[in-house]
Amino acid sequence: MSSELSISGSCDGSCKTEPFDLEITMAFQPIVDLRKQEIFAYEALVRGADGRSAAEVLALVDTNNMFSFDQRCRVLAIAQAAELKMDTRLSINFIPNAVYEPRSCIKATLAASEEFCFPKERLIFEVVEGERVTSRQHLASIFLAYASFGFMTALDDFGEGFSGLNHLVRLRPDLLKMDMMLVRDIDTDPRKRAVVGAVVRLGRELGVGVVAEGVETEEEVATLLEIGVTLFQGYVIARPEVGALPKPRLSF
C-alpha cells in the first residue's frame, strides 16, 4: 500500500512549502480504557526511517518545511494505520502554525482517509498545550473547523503551561491529556492527587475525557483509577512500536 499522496494544491501560496527531506515512519502506542478493558485509540508518533528518535526528527522541522512535514505525518499515519488494519481511533499530532487555513490544509487528510478507507470519524487531532502559536484565535478556529469535520480533538500535556484553563475554555477539546509530571509518582504525592482529582471533576462537568499519559508503574495506575481516571497511555500499558500495533496490558 502506498502512503504517498500528493499534497500539491493544498497550499494557496500563503504558506512556505519547502520539502521535508528526511524519510519518516510512525510508531504506534495505545491509549486504553481500563474501566472497559479495551483499546480507545492508538497515537501515531513520528520516527526517522533510519531509526532517529522523535526529538531528532522534530529538530529538523523549521518554519520553511513545517507545512510539508505536518502534511506528510498526517497522510503517513493514516496510511500505516489502514495497512495495519487498525479498527480503533487514530490520534495524530499536528503543528498549528503549519495550518494556515484549516479547511484548505485538511484536504490531504480527507483524501488520505478516503484513499486508504480509514473513517475520518475515527481521527483525533492533538496539540501540545504549550505549543507556540501565532494566534490563540487561529488555534481556536482550527479546533472549531476540525469538530465540524467530525474529528475529535485533544489538548496534550495539559497542566504544563500557565494557560491550560484558558485553552480549555477557548478550544473546547474532546480530550485532555495530562502532563506526565502530574502523573509521575502520584501514588506518593497528595498534592498531585488533589490536582488530578480536580481535573477529573472538571472534565466530567465539561464532558471532556481525561487521559493519563506517561504512566509507568502499577501504583500510579491504581491511584489514578481510584481518583476516577479511565483512559491511560504509557510504558506500563505498552511501549510504542514501529510498524506494528502493540498489544496493551488491560488488567491490573
TrEMBL record:
InterPro entries: Cyclic-di-GMP_PDE-like, EAL_dom, EAL_sf. Residues 4-252 form the EAL domain. One of its GO terms (molecular function) is cyclic-guanylate-specific phosphodiesterase activity. It comes from the Bacteria. Pfam families: EAL (PF00563). This is EAL domain, c-di-GMP-specific phosphodiesterase class I (Or its enzymatically inactive variant). It comes from Ferrithrix thermotolerans DSM 19514.
